[in-house]
């Protein structure tokens, strides 16, 4: 599992595979997206970015959306869209007694509050999460700068307007990756609703 302290594994623990609960339901009229408990970042990005929507998700494509959101949900788009838990509207989980519980602002409010940052796997087995969708993003420009003056150039480009996805500034003019190389920035771009990667090199 994804946990820096290794808390997702251990001795005498039960691991429940929810990876097949990977449905993504988009309600464009109500601007909602409901994801199954086993949906990963990449699967969610692939589903909503094709419709032009961004999502305040994580950077690692194989992290589960449920664990990401239950831990608060920090990602590279957080300054623009907020934390993942800020968009969380409802959660369904199965408790230790085998009961299906729905938690939101109106039902089981204390549990819903606790699930907005207290960590994954602590209160039950998540079967679905419902998020509010951000507004569609018309376009995103991503750029990487490999130059001593990268920071100054980045500030100039950012002042033009639009969504700035990320900047990689390398002093001394470090070599840029080959054009055909793919990185996790493809996933990051998808979280902003971007469909195309344009790289500007200084």
Can you describe this structure?
With 202 residues, the protein is of the alpha+beta class. Helices cover 20% and strands 14% of the residues. It is built from six helices and five strands; from the N terminus they run ββαααββαβαα. The protein has helices at residues 41-49, 65-70, 78-81, 109-114, 150-158, 185-191, and strands at 24-27, 32-36, 88-94, 100-104, 125-132. It has a five-stranded antiparallel β-sheet. The longest helix is centred in the first third of the chain and has 9 residues, at 41-49.
Sequence-ordered SSE layout with sheet pairings:
Layout lengths: L23 E4 L4 E5 L4 H9 L15 H6 L7 H4 L6 E7 L5 E5 L4 H6 L10 E8 L17 H9 L26 H7 L11
Antiparallel strand pairs: 1-2, 2-5, 3-4, 3-5
How would you concisely characterize the structure shown here?
By secondary structure, the protein is of the alpha+beta class.
Percent of residues in β-strands: 5-15%
Radius of gyration: 19 Å
Helices and strands, in order, run as EEHHHEEHEHH
User: How many DSSP-defined strands?
Assistant: 5
Biggest beta sheet summary: 5 strands, antiparallel
What is the residue-mean pLDDT, rounded to a whole number? 75
User: Roughly what percent helix?
Assistant: 10-25%
Give the class from helix and strand content and strand pairing: alpha+beta
Q: What separation lies between the terminal Cα atoms?
A: 39 Å
Shape: globular
Q: Uncertain segments of ≥5 residues (pLDDT<50)?
A: 157-182, 195-202
Specify the number of helices: 6
Query: What order do the strands of the largest sheet run in, or round the barrel if closed?
Result: 1-2-5-3-4
């Amino acid at each position: 599992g994804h946990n820096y302290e290794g808390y997702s594994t251990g001795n005498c623990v039960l691991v429940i595979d929810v990876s097949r609960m990977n449905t993504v339901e988009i309600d464009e009229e109500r601007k909602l997206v409901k994801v199954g408990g086993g949906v990963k970042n990449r699967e969610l990005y692939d589903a909503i970015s094709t419709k032009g929507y961004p999502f305040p998700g994580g950077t690692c494509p194989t992290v589960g959306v449920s664990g990401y959101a239950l831990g608060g949900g920090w990602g590279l788009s957080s300054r623009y869209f907020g934390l993942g838990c800020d968009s969380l509207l409802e959660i369904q989980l199965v408790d230790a007694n085998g009961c299906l519980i729905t938690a939101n602002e109106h039902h089981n409010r204390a549990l819903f509050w606790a699930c907005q940052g207290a960590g994954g796997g602590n209160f039950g087995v998540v079967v679905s999460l419902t998020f509010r969708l951000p507004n569609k993003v018309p376009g995103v420009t991503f750029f990487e700068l490999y130059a001593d003056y990268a920071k100054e150039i980045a500030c100039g480009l950012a002042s033009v307007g639009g969504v700035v996805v990320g900047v990689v500034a390398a002093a001394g003019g470090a070599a840029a990756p080959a054009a055909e190389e793919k990185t996790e920035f493809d996933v990051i771009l998808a979280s902003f609703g971007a469909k195309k990667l344009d790289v500007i090199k200084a």
